[in-house]
Amino acid sequence: MKVLGVSYGYHDASACLVVDGRVIAAAAEERFTRQKHDSNFPTYAVEYCLKEAGISSGDLDQAIFNEDPHAKFSRVLCSSMAAFPDSRREFVESMKAWLGRKLWAVNTISARLDLAPEKITYLGHHYSHAVQAFMGSGFEESAILIVDAVGDWACSALYTGKWQDGKPKVDRLLEVSFPNSLGLVYSAVTAYLGFSPNDSECSTMALAAFGTPRFADKMRQIIKETDGGLYEVDQAYFNFTKFFRGPVTDRFLEEFGPARSYKDNLPFDCFGTPEGVVSKDAQRLADVAASTQLVLEERVLGLCRKLHGMAPSANLCFAGGVSLNCVSNYRVLTDSPFESVYIPPDPGDGGTSVGTALYYDAAEAGGTPGRAPYSPYQGVELDELDAVKLVDFIKPEHFVPYLKQGVELPKGSKWRFKTYKDRDELYAAVADRLMAGQIVGCMQGRGELGPRALGNRSILIRPDDTKLATRLSKHVKERASLRPYAFSVAEKDALTTLAIEPDHVRMNRWMQFAVPTVESARPKLLGALHIDGTSRPQVVYEKDNPAYHALLTAFGERFGIAALLNTSFNPSGYPMVTTPVEAMVMFARTDMDALLLNTTVIWKDVEHS
Amino acid sequence: MITAIERLKIRLAVSVELSGKPAKVSEVIRGFQATEADGVWHLYRGMKQIDDPRERAIIFGHCLEEESHADAFVKAYKHYGGRVFTPTHYERKALYAGDEPIWKTFAFVHVGEVDATQRFRILSQELPPGALKDCLSNVVSDEEGHVDLTYEMLKRLGATDSAIRSEVRWVRVRRLWERWLRTGKRLIDNLANISLSIVYYVFGALLFGAARRRLARGFVTYDNNKMKHL
Ligand SMILES: [Fe+2]
Ligand SMILES: [Fe+2]
Ligand SMILES: [Fe+2]
């Protein structure tokens, strides 16, 4: 059976092809269109998935969509009507989008894929998330928690999942309805703090570490706990139904003080050496972030308690946009009644295409929990020849006017490359470069699903050098100094670097949790730690990613710990690179020193006359 | 003649629509950023179909320049935009069907370069001093280079002068048609604004109570736990 999962319309459009219960290919549309969080119909992601299997859309048995457009339309309509007479603009703009396009999403899929409408199934949005969370988990049975901004009507949802007679059975227990949304509150506060909502929630989470939660009681009143772990959001503080009026109301501003303009400096540095004095006002904003973060964690834990009461399982599957909050995820792992927590590699909307396709296949053709787990490396395979053929013809001196701010190119710069036949020799050479303090772009095999770079589209440096990490932030990634980096560590060194229980090691393979680190290992990891000594590790197993594991091991032999600072390979404002040419453009314009493309290393050299 | 009309239009826009309105200027900048980024995407796509590494290296440089233009507009935006920059997303569409020769894509890009050069040059002359004027003055000299670069690329890819001329004419007609379509869309959009506003005030007055009760319900109660079909 060939099933295509499709997600689009809000953000992170994606497609996934499942053939006979196995994921053949999955990718977000943004990786093809170079528009971060692209929400348009995933034309190129679908094209890629079908090509990967050597089939055309006519060969598909089924397509499955991650949303119920009619239910969502009724929510959008209700929400703009409820704010009458202050929501004319919201009503007009939403109706234009919905009546013109979004309401006909299923018909669009049918037309674009040239597939009969009866071959297209759709699920409610939170149901899609629930099957997404359950299908890859490998659990026989599990409680399922979904928390995001808003789907059709639901904002948070509790489900159970189990395998029964060889088929997955995912049942709803309860769905908390719009406008009671933890995700929307977090996004509103993100906008209030001057970051980009629906994108830079990670900045709010990062800022929280610099604050004290002195507004937590106020925030607890705003997001009130109700009935044994459920919650309610006081709408007097937010403009969820009148979004053109800004993210928060005047009442919110009275309680928490003025919002930050994105132009105002926030002089926090996760290495503890801020450029500039932290003003009272900047500290207030950090305190608001800390309070919001703390109360988010409490409410997510409340939902866990409620869920465990209704479905007393040892296992939890967790998905939805809020499950990208790795600080709150760690609280779920340590402070909730669940013992095992599974968060898919792409727990946001983009990953629903994978879960729904797997679910449809197993629900129709049968399956087993052990067959459903999938690797996050489902994206486009790299063709290094594409780049290698180009290197000799590239003239770096031509790029000088187009370098990123602060990047310098020494006179006589040349690009060189070497393709290695022997893998050991290759990883030794790259490890030597990393030891020497070089910034290395690493592109190997197939691209990752989801927002985390897991060694195949990563930028790597040695993890102990904060100066190098600052150079990486300023002249490569162009990111704020308050945002910490994460690291990858080979399985053998997981417990010497991470202060976690042995049972939790394998749960940390996709950077889902911000965990404490072992104090004695910290000097070796300084560049990859947040101000509070935590990091968001990727524990790398040889069987999951042999190439990256080999590189980590080679580096470990020189450094003492098989760990590398790992950040996503993307220019600021763009999604992760997909082709070597995109990687080379970033390499050319930034302060990166070398590029690893499968078995080829490209580096910047200076020709001395 | 076309330049004179274009100049008049831009002068009018600068003095009436943009003058003293940073929010409007920031929207214009978002549009420029999106056009530059879209250009890079088409170049990347075109490059995939070219084998000769020399030609690929030329396009590589071109991609790099256009990407830096997109960045320059993001920087300029910060002087005008009240909210953090978010890029405008287009639905990306290939310019030609897969079986058309690749040089046609570059003919399209070439026309885009000619138009961008003209528009950016006039705009940089007409604008009062400021970040956008500076940005455009920098970008326009590159764009002038791109006009020749893309023409040379057309020749390298084997297009004859007469084929180029006829394709450029065709691209111009296509772009004119697209512009008309956009004008038509704006017209329909305005009509939709008026009629939906009327609907809002008529039905909103009747339905807002029911809508508020629906939002106050707190939980989703309809059957949401099944696979659905149209
Ligand atoms: Fe979602
Ligand atoms: Fe340009
Ligand atoms: Fe150009």
List the helices and strands and how they pair.
The complex is a heterodimer of chains A (609) and B (230).
Chain A (H helix, E strand, L loop, with lengths): L1 E6 L6 E6 L2 E7 L1 H4 L9 H11 L8 E4 L3 H14 L5 H13 L4 H9 L6 E3 L2 H11 L5 E7 L6 E11 L2 E11 L4 H11 L8 H8 L7 H7 E4 L3 E4 L16 H7 L23 H31 L4 E5 L6 H10 L4 E3 L9 H14 L11 E5 L3 H7 L21 E7 L3 H13 L4 E4 L2 E3 L8 E5 L4 H12 L8 E5 L3 H4 L17 E2 L17 E2 L2 E3 L5 H14 L3 E6 L11 H10 L4 E4 L2 E7 L3
Parallel strand pairs in A: 1-4, 4-5, 6-11, 11-12, 15-23, 18-21
Antiparallel strand pairs in A: 1-2, 2-3, 6-7, 7-8, 9-10, 13-16, 14-24, 15-17, 17-22, 18-22, 19-20, 23-24
Chain B lengths: L1 H17 L3 H27 L4 H25 L25 H24 L4 H26 L4 H55 L15
Helix pairs in contact in B: 1-4, 2-3, 3-5, 4-5, 4-6
The complex binds fe (ii) ion (3 copies).
Describe the overall structure.
The complex is a heterodimer of chains A (609) and B (230). Chain A has an 8-stranded mixed beta sheet with strand order 14-24-23-15-17-22-18-21, with helices on both faces. Chain A folds into 3 domains: 1-65 and 68-122 and 345-374, Nucleotidyltransferase, domain 5; 140-343, Nucleotidyltransferase, domain 5 (2-Layer Sandwich), CATH 3.30.420.40; 385-606, Alpha-Beta Complex (DHBP synthase). In chain A, helix 6 packs across helix 13, helix 7 packs antiparallel against helix 11 (280-310) and helix 15 packs across helix 18. The longest helix of chain A has 31 residues, at 280-310. Chain A is 34% helix and 20% strand. Chain A has 609 residues and is α/β, with parallel strands linked by helices. The model of chain A has no long low-confidence stretch (mean pLDDT 96). The termini of chain A are far apart. Chain B is mainly alpha-helical and 230 residues long. The mean pLDDT of chain B is 93. Chain B folds into 2 domains: 4-159, Ferritin, core subunit, four-helix bundle (Ferritin, Up-down Bundle), CATH 1.20.1260.10; 194-229. The relative contact order of chain B is 0.09. The radius of gyration of chain B is 23 Å and the shape is globular. The longest helix of chain B is centred in the last third of the chain and has 55 residues, at 161-215. Chains A and B meet through helix 3, helix 4, strand 5, strand 8 and helix 19 of A and helix 2, helix 3 and helix 6 of B.
